[in-house]
Amino acid sequence: MLHLYRVPLLVFGLALLGLLLLYQGLGELKPRADWQWMDVVGEGGTALMATIWLLQILSSRPRGRVTALLGLGLAGVALGGAADCLDEFFRLQAGANWDNWLESVLGPLGMLTLTAGLYFWRQEQFSLNEQLLKRERLFRDHRAFDRITQLANAEYLQQQVALERAARPQAPCSLILLDIDRFHAINRAYGHGEGDRLLQAISQLLLLNLGNDDLLCRYAGDRFAILLPGTDHAAAGRIASHLRSVVGQLAWHTRQQGIRLHLGARVVSAVMAGDVATQLAALNAELEPAMPLQAQAS
Amino acid sequence: MLADCYSRDTPLLPAMHQPALLSSLAARRDMASDMLLRGTGLDALALSEGRAAVSPAQLLAMLANLAKQDGQRDVAFELGQQWLPGHYGTISLALLQAPNLAEALSLLITHQDQLCPLLGPRLQVEGKELLLYWTDSVGVGALMPFLVELHMTAVSALCRWLADRPLPWRYCFNRTPPRNLAQHQVHLGSHLQFGCQLDAMVLDSDWLHQPWPRSNPAAYAMLQQQLLRQGRPQYSLVQVLYDHLRAQIGNPPTLEAAATLLATSPATLKRHLAKHGTHFQALLDLVRTHESLRLMQYHGYGQEELAQYFGFHDARNFRRSFKRWTGMAASLPFSLAGAPW
């Protein structure tokens, strides 16, 4: 995303260059023996690090108030550090104190701006967390997320089951598996791109029908897993059949042909107890006797 | 003849066959084409215009690049869903019209140069069970588990589609279980067994001749004629040698005899085998392993009989060799609880 910030980065570069020219023009180069290497490394290092952080922030964030504040703050810190470092190489005329001003204004002002940016970043993160709530449940591991549906995978699900049972050993914790009927036939008939879009739509649909404490994962392929903390078997069964009927109600039209597909799903649910992998294997086996004649793909 | 076999460097596959499938999958996964083609020496433009022909080694390198970018470990399964019947011309059309499993598998085995040039499928029908197992055709190395997942998914998905119902396959893998079974469970099913001696799919042989609803017999017959006119299919050197060793297993086979059969010198044959990551003795041991496990499980052979069958001096000698091939003791009764071999 760095290309979004071409102009601000150019200004930053020019400011660095300007600092150098300013010191060169108004001061004289100190003899090499007078250079304080410890100070050069310390102050120059601050400037260099702040520049790296600036590039990392800008390359990973869209534009906006938070990015602007973080960027300005880090740029200020970097320029302050650079001024401090140039001080070590150039001797200025006695009595000139603009360089002190430069150092003590740029650095602290940068930090103040950065702090403000971090404050707003925290607020932004709260609102993002709310959106991600049913996808990640209080634990973040970006590697576990599927590219198509933006849902976590089976490995993440297993971690979550373990975490949930460790945190609340007394409360029941249920799991639903939901498998789309004849999804492979949809892929064959309308292409895998259409299949991907349908998976995205169904994951949104399922998310809308879940409570705030629940977690939706893409188990694998066209199979979804829903973790329901604090839910007993009867309640999980009701939720499972509700989710199945919700998928059945979806009037999905293919993009190219505009054909309405009639969808169906198979569901199984159980209260998690004992070894997670064994229980997942049993639940998957339970899904297997398919009823392919019940739901036709078009 | 050696010249009739394909090797890992034979430009076997038209660009619009498997390579095009890989390209479109990579594009759907936002993978740049130079990333997919890295290390293959293939030109992206020539490939996209369908001008290039791709060798098994190049296909293998493309698959390795895809596998490297696969954070979710599902690319083998997703590719498998689309691998068969594929868009490979007449052979794909013929597969689509196959009247039953027996015909489909026969097409797959006969035309493996077009359908699955990296792993060779072998069908074994023993009483009530059919066994489809996969062996390395071109020296696939560390990519073997990935390719096994791909090919097993491909055959399972093809059968599910053409039979209009999932067939109750059981799967055996010659590897330790993966960390997470989710992809296997969803794409293959829950009858999974790891730590077996070979990579095989097992099914009741009754399924072989169950009619498939999509088939059109007249179209199938015409497509078969067309396939005949295409000329003789090629097999990989490793697969040809496997067949030869299996036919001669009791004799016992020698490198010289194999070289004569292939109309080449032993030194040349050795060099070709080395290029495919194997050597004569390794291949002979593999064939003997497969044969002894089959004879033990389905025909009740004991060590004495096996030693005699393979031309060993005595049972003790055989026992030691078997232990070296498989890491297991060759003791009866030999049945891995429903799992073959």
TrEMBL record, chain A:
The lineage of its organism: Bacteria, Pseudomonadati, Pseudomonadota, Betaproteobacteria, Neisseriales. InterPro entries: Diguanylate_Cyclase, GGDEF_dom, Nucleotide_cyclase, Rev_trsase/Diguanyl_cyclase. Residues 171-298 form the GGDEF domain. It catalyses: 2 GTP = 3',3'-c-di-GMP + 2 diphosphate. It is an enzyme of class 2 (transferase). Keywords: Membrane, Transmembrane, Transmembrane helix. This is diguanylate cyclase. Its EC number is 2.7.7.65. NCBIfam families: GGDEF (TIGR00254).
From TrEMBL, chain B:
Keywords: DNA-binding, Transcription, Transcription regulation. Gene3D superfamilies: Homeodomain-like (1.10.10.60). It holds the Pfam family Arabinose_bd. InterPro entries: AraC-type_N (IPR032687), Homeodomain-like_sf (IPR009057), HTH_AraC (IPR018060). Residues 235-336 form the HTH araC/xylS-type domain. This is AraC family transcriptional regulator.
